[in-house]
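Spend some time on this chain, tokens included, and walk me through the fold:

. . .
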Amino acid sequence: MSNPENHTNTNTNLTQSIQAALSQLENAYNPKDVEAGMYQSWENSGYFQPTFDKDESFSIALPPPNVTGSLHMGHGFNNAIMDALTRFHRMDGDNTLWQPGTDHAGIATQMVVERRLEAQGLKRRDMTRADFVDKVWEWKEESGDNITNQIRRLGSSVDWSRERFTMDDGLSNAVKEVFVRLFDDGLIYRGKRLVNWDPKFQTALSDLEVENHDEKGSLWHFRYHFTDTELTTQDGKNYLVVATTRPETLLGDTAVAVNPSDERYAHLVGKTITLPITGRVVPIVADDYVESDFGTGCVKITPAHDFNDYELGRRHSLPLINILDERANILPAMEVYPDLQTREPTLETTPKDYAGLERFAARKFLVAQAGEQGWLEEVEDYALKAPRAERGGTIVEPWLTDQWYVAVKKLAGPAIDAVEDGSIEFVPAQYKNMYMAWMTDLQDWCISRQLWWGHRIPAWYDDATGEIYVARDESEVRTKYNLSDDVKLRQDDDVLDTWFSSGLWTFSTLDWADPNADPRVLETFHPTSVLVTGFDIIFFWVARMIMMTLHFVKNEDGTPQVPFKTVYVHGLVRDGNGQKMSKSKGNVLDPIDLIDGIDLEALVEKRTSNMMNPKDAAKIEKQTRKEFPEGIPAYGTDALRFTFTSLASTGRDINFDLKRVEGYRNFCNKIWNASRFVLMNCVDSEGSAKPIDQTANPDVWELPEKWIMSRLNSSIKDIHQHFAQYRLDMVSQDIYEFIWNEYCDWYVELAKASLNDDSVSDERKAQIRYVLLHVLETALRFTHPIMPYLTEEIWQTVAPLLNRKNTDSIVIADYPQTDNAQISKQVESDMAWLQELIASVRNIRGEMKLGNAVRLPVLLQNISHDEEARLARIKNQFKALAKVESLEIVKEGDEVPLSSSSMVGQLRVLVPMKGLIDPTAELKRLDKSYEKLQKQADGISRKLGNEGFVSKAPVEVVEAEKVKLEELEGQLKTMAGQMEELKAL
């Protein structure tokens, strides 16, 4: 029995609480009003800061966004994923830390600042290094604030008290520590190698900073004559024809290569040719790299200006000749290196008229000279991949230069083992293969960049002796190497690759290099639990973090520590047509614009403001006006976040469609309106609180209550499982299905029918209100990690009605746990039957165009004893929801009036036609339904007639198909009889 003391219909405080709740939840959901000030309140309350009092810990290091402007949709996507995971684990009882920070972004940031200065008439080279760096810091403060504000707008519950920047003192100290230790271990060295070189910024680039663009070019075919004038090819020519897309590199050729199995040139291997213009005599070598069926099968080899030629040159001990300076102009005297160990090259005089020419001017001049002198065979149009700097678009040159390198082979071994033995898991698993493919074919890592912005390399030079010293600062250099104060030292001007400092991110942000830091932070939150990242930087960032961390961070027993236990790899965010979002395509969306909304003119201005080509700008403007004629409405943060997580199927790129955001904005409305409805059903017409139980009393529950509690706990179980599997798309589906389809569309309607039924006892009604509120409050908590704002707003009004508000915020409320005792497959099966029963009546009503106001007489034929028992329990709900006027069971042998019917298994649901239904229309409807059922039956018959299916499929599957066919045949027989009756009228 329900305890009368729990009934609070006379409780003034409860009445006031409900009235206040209804007042707070205004008639319409407005995300702007809901979100205003809420995040700041969370942050000020310290909810995002970690604790150290739990048994289990969970931590994520935010992949640091570059301080170069603003966040894009990719940031919005991975922030939604990370925050959902973080909020879930915080509520689930773990010590939880989401570590935030930003990256200094080396060349990207320097380029932005240089452009800003140039707009003011200033150039970097006209400033001191210190003055320029000061300007960059000014920009960082401006841009960094913008980015952190955007992260806040996305609702990301990072611990801002621990915010880090890769150029902070703490992280800089970690970088120096790592560099010095690697150098002392013999794993960092300075050497001459071929690198990607940006002539505009005059710096080495990583592969990730180079983009290959499909462009139209030319393929020039040149004649290279044999040094021995008596020597000829098989077809009698005294020259070989080689083809190239970069004619100017002819100046640095040191060989011509052919395939060793190419019989056309076998007699020429070991002979020489004399290069045009330079007169240099170079050998003809054989190498498997050359493809016999490409062009003439002869390839010019320029080891100092092509990566493939560089490797071939190493195999054949060819000299390297550098023809370019740092601006990609032809050197006055070309530098000849017999090998990579040679520090000082010999010089070869540059041919007349080429010295000082810009590379493309030299190309034009050389082609013209070849034509005039008769050694240009032909020129053909050619589609090529042009390597351009990601920042600035300059054509990148492979260039021979002295740089600092990490010898990665020793570091790679443990990093491979950690993934092989399962210490680090990739989700989805196929990315393990991508990781392994990269790690087993590593080249030494070029870590130096010729920039002013970044971590300056902690190396000092004694120009008088040529010695290089590495230490944390100049004072340590002198102590470490026993140098007197009169030895003049010069610090290396280069800075480190951005990936070097970000490779230390998981442990450097946790104060690894700070001896005065709280040791609990590193001990509790490292290794981090999961890294959420895109597949495109698995090698450039993920692999390097694994290598660095395993080398430097140790467990108490001295064993290496991994940086994270799981790598969750997500896809790229593309537009609705599957196209990559880019400014040049004009299809970029700003996540903040989707949250706040943006009018059409502002959107057009935003998409075209940086367009240099007026035609491109006009095209994008036209496209934007067509796609968004009224601009973009304000969807709010929760709808956007739910869209992201609903699309987060592991590893796949997502096509972002605004209709999805609109649909989930409607979902927010649904939750809001359902909450108002529940609250309104807790007060009478005068606004006084109706009886609401404060605890569960299953003794008075009927099928709807048992069912919704079972589904609630089944959903909680599924959600926990899907969070553990990083299936955020399934978590979103679990939440959506439960709240919209089960709670709102079914239980709330069933509860409404009972609450409005005078025959239902007050005791049961008090329990129904409890269940309504309990399920809503629980659903708000399990939805919170994805929809933080809406759930907080409603939870603050609902939780007090059940005395559940033992915390100040849903952020730190307990995440719902599964009560297995509440889960009943039988109850869920019974309810599924009731839903089918109601749906059958609704289908008849809809197909016969009977309005909802018409209450229908319903007959049930072929009902089983179990179904009669079920019906007795839910008769009132069935009649109320299906709007049934009368309900009768047709017994065997009873005459059945001509009726419109629908089948629920073997049960026949009938609505007598007399006075309601047009016989002709009903016959047409039945004929259509009969045809549909017959197709289903025929399909199953064919399947069961297929010996391959019957012999290979599990026995239970075959039996299920047989039962389904028997059921369909019974329905067809019944329907055929009804159709005959209609035809006889």
In short: Residues 1-10 have pLDDT under 50 and may be disordered. DSSP finds 30 helices and 32 strands in the chain.
